[in-house]
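One example copied in:
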Amino acid sequence: MTSQLQKSKLCFIGGGNMAGAIIGGLVAKGIEKQNVCVSEPWEVNRDKMAATGVRTTASNVEASQGADLLVLAVKPQVTKGVCRELAAAWAECASTPLIVSIAAGITLQSLKEWFKLADGRTPHIIRVMPNTPALLGEGASGLFASDDVSQAEKDLAEALLGSVSKVAEWVDREELIDVVTGLSGSGPAYFFAMVEHLIESGIGLGLTKEQATRLAKQTCFGAGKMLIESSDEPSQLRINVTSPKGTTEAALKSFDASSFKETVDKAVKAATSRGKELGETLAKS
């Protein structure tokens, strides 16, 4: 964790799972808890956040007072109202916090419009697409910054995400955030579905549910660890385990016959397109 992040006043608007994961990661890495304030309307979530030692409130404006960095972690449908509420409250402020938005689908153009102060100023904004393994400190995140964001601000956002993400990739075009959504944002579900179907196949062939579940889970975990720790490309790892005319080759030929590559490609493109559609729809709301 950078010294600048340690010294920064951090505000979280929204105290749901992803915000909770980031806060948990920050606390685990020794952040000064009193430098963190969370605004959350639901008492149950506020209590969860308070249990970590950070400050909590039901007021977005109160939470944002004096903040250096604000994490916008609310549902897309309420983002516009939250942004305008904060913009109105900051009208007399000499400076505004760096905004890190994890609100899915909300474009920079929309955020800048909604956050615009009465005198025309807008805060510096970074869009982030994390994924659910962040809840275990194993996340992968994509980031895109508006043109006015400084390198120091990028470093601050990356340090923040580093508390829960093992990979943080900056993209140079905003539309690529939708691709990140399709690849890693939605990606965990693809693996869950694969394991789900492996378990069902194992059960159908005679294993108990418990046996099939343990074997499938550990296979996914072990394969993932090999991907991370090996210097080989995924294709080479696949080749390494595929003996000519063996069982794995038979399975992979079945995948090919079922257009497995095209199926995966269509899935990623579908999620990417849906992310773009959501952004366009919310911009008009």
User: Anything to note?
Assistant: Residues 1 and 159 are 6 Å apart (CA to CA). DSSP finds 13 helices and eight strands in the chain.
